[in-house]
Amino acid sequence: MKPPVLILSLAIASPLALAAPPAVDPAMLELADQSRCLTCHDVDETVRGPAWRDVARRYRGKPEVEEVLVTKVYEGGGGAWGNDYMSANKRAGLDNIRILVRWILSLP
Ligand code: HEC
């Protein structure tokens, strides 16, 4: 029974592995979860808010947006991605938000 099972699992696993996007730092995901960002965001999928890889792509090569985004995430705001509005995230704290925004902007 062993060889067929092995072949089957390879057939299932390898297309997924090929399609998988670059790995994400689990500590950062944990911080995002604790900061309640993940109720509206995902790294790869648009949820209520834009996928964070899309955010990184839009602002690639524009380091000056970092502080603007930190303030926007802290205070809330809209108008950049559609008609929805991001509520304030003050409980996450400015320091955590700065760490998260820096990480989001660096996503491949
Ligand atoms: C209640 C839902 C919600 C939560 C919670 C939330 N966001 Fe958002 N976020 C949004 C929406 C909606 C947008 C799009 C706003 C717009 O169109 O300008 C957005 C946009 C963003 C952007 C891009 C802003 C821009 O101007 O391009 C960043 C970066 C971001 N969020 C990070 C975070 C981080 C970090 C957290 C956690 C501290 C967080 N968000 C929590 C809904 C949310």
From TrEMBL:
Q: Which Pfam families match?
A: Cytochrom_C (PF00034)
Signal peptide per UniProt = 1-19
| Family annotation (InterPro entries) | Cyt_c-like_dom, Cyt_c-like_dom_sf, Cyt_c_ID
| Keyword match Cell cycle | no
Q: How is it modified after translation?
A: Binds 1 heme c group covalently per subunit.
Q: Where does heme c bind?
A: 37, 41, 86
What protein name applies here?
Answer: Cytochrome C
Q: What is the lineage of its organism?
A: Bacteria, Pseudomonadati, Pseudomonadota, Betaproteobacteria, Candidatus Accumulibacter
